Amino acid sequence: MLKKMVVMKFGGTSVGSAENIKHVASLLMKRNDTMIVVLSAMSGTTNKLLEICSAYRDGDNKKAEDIIDGLRLKYEKEVSNLFNSEYWCSTTQKIVDERLENLRKFEDDIFTTFEEKQIVAEGEIISTTMMVNYLKEQNADAELLSALDYMRTDNFQNPDMKQTALMLQEQLNHLGPHQIIVTQGFICRNAFDEIDNLKRGGSDYTATIIGSILKSNVEIWTDIDGVHNADPRIVNNTFPIPRLSYEEASELAYYGAKILHPTCVKPARAGKVQILLKNTLQPEAAGTVIGEESHIKTNSSNGIKAIALKVDIAVVHIACNSNFVSMTTLYTKAVQILDAYDSNIYACSCSEQGISLCIEESEDTLQIIEELQQTMSVTIAYNSAIVTVVGSFEQSGILAQMMKAIDNLQIRMVSLGGKRNCISFVIDDKDKSTAMQALCDTLFSK
Predict the structure, then answer these.
(1) Low-confidence ranges of the chain (pLDDT < 70)
(2) Which of helix, strand or coil describes residue 130?
(3) How far apart are CA 300 and CA 443, in angstroms?
(4) Model confidence over 308-360: pLDDT tens digits?
């Protein structure tokens, strides 16, 4: 029988410095719950590790060594500021030094994605080591659980829930009872027992997978007090949303809300566990609860929950080079090409003249366009953005209100979500702030 625990996840900013680690530790030690705590790497570390990978890939060992030396100086400072006792300071610094020194072993290797994943995993390993050792210095009942000992993916790089559940139970039984168990987010082993990662969603994904397995609610702690009705960096007078359904949270995340990745909601929904989004810097704030639709009540008079923004969008219009090719064949071929590059379609419209698809601009965009042009006529509009309104659209005239709010802007496409819980407007990127503010003023006015 798996243990009943609260699953808590803290991101890179929450553990981004010695001061922040102390703050998170104080939150944990105030709780009476039995916890499994999922940590990301310290903010900035993963980017540096990826820079090391890039240097090795380019054969620039000197650059890789310089970055490693820079990381060592950073961690020496943070470790020194974190611990009071010489024992825990020196013990932790020794482990950190060993992990960073381990990065130099790749200098003479042929560098592949296999080596890259080993390097990138070090960020989470170091942050969890620092947290557990600090908790132990504070006499907390804490223990480290390596994600590499239980988190598994299958042959298709999806979480292997059955194998992960079996191995997690085995590891928890082996550790015995502890109030705080700290583990790494993001990292795992694949079906070939190689070090790998969960890619999209990272540490949030780890937390919701564990929560689903343990049948425990998941708390995700970030630097904002829950999901807001719009991005407060763009829109004035936003407010946190008390409750969202799984579907609403997934749509918001898919269309650009940065607080949660859509894949992270799937395990929670499968396990019927709630996700609570909390603010590490304001733990008293209520945050946002994500759960079953039956438990959700709208927090605005018109049923609208929030507005998301996704930028760096390209609108690709494709047409047949032959009059004898059906739209279905055209669409199928385009989707096959996009799928090969792992490129999502965020909106789509179809007419007798052709099909328009909204995709995210990336380093593969030009290659995608070249492949499409081999069999299709292609035009593309860069510098687009998608503004998506999420909620209930049962109230009469709600769409007319939205259209009126942005009727002075150039709208490139309008798309109604498959479950009719979201409407997306594709606009010119330069108009995104104007559109967001206008929609908020219209939909959330008192």
Answers:
(1) 1-4, 200-201, 294-301, 323-324, 446
(2) helix
(3) 9
(4) 999 999 999 999 877 667 888 889 999 999 999 999 999 999 888 899 999 99
Q: Where are the beta strands (DSSP E) in 274-328?
A: 275-279, 288-291, 304-320
H/E segment holding residue 114 = helix 113-120
Q: Are 381 and 414 in contact (CB under 8 A)?
A: no
- Torsional class of 226: left (φ above 0), alpha (ψ -120 to 50), beta (otherwise): left
| 62 C-beta neighbours (distance < 10 Å), count | 9
Tokens 């607080």 identify what position?
259
Distance separating alpha carbons of residues 48 and 16, to the nearest angstrom: 14
* Amino acid 294: pLDDT: 46
Please report the beta strands in 187-295, taking only residues with DSSP state E, as ranges in sequence order.
187-189, 195-197, 218-222, 243-245, 275-279, 288-291
> Residue 77 and residue 89: Cα distance in Å, rounded?
11
Query: Per residue in 299-318, pLDDT tens?
Result: 456 789 999 999 999 999 99
Res 1: pLDDT: 43
Residue appearing with tokens 């049948």: 215
Identify the pLDDT of residue 301.
67
Burial class of residue 293, CB neighbours in 10 A (0-12, 13-18, 19+)? exposed
- Rounded to whole angstroms, the Cα distance separating 45 from 71 reads 8
Taking the C-alpha atoms of residue 208 and residue 8, their distance in angstroms, rounded to an integer, is: 9
Cα 276-153-204 angle, rounded to 5 deg: 20
Tokens of 270: 């499968």
Q: Are 45 and 112 in contact (CB under 8 A)?
A: no
Question: What is the rounded CA–CA span in Å between residue 26 and residue 61?
Answer: 40
